[in-house]
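User: I'm curious whether this sequence folds into something compact or stays loose and floppy. Could you predict its structure so I can see for myself?
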Amino acid sequence: MTGAGLLGILIGLGLLIAFAFRGWSVLLLAPLAALIAALCSREPLLAHWTQIFMVSAAGFLLFRAAGIPRRLMPAAIVLGTSTFTMSALPGTPSIQNAIPMP
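Assistant: Here's the prediction. I'll summarize afterward.
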């Protein structure tokens, strides 16, 4: 991965977070952030959009590949986002942050 590609990922993620906190829908922001990341990678934009992002997004939103019922989608989204925020973001109250505290 080139430096420009990594920068595109960080810019796309930063914009996704900033606009999501302002109340924009993540369903609209995710494709735009993916376009920004693909644009900065200096590779074919349409190929990234159609062959990578849209295929993965469709597989996640219809759950058809795994045969998982659609009624379980909200649970998967909540568990995925809560486990990320409980361990990956700085300052979260996780055990490795709580041990050295007085």
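Summary: Residues 3-21 form the longest helix (19 residues). The radius of gyration is 17 Å.
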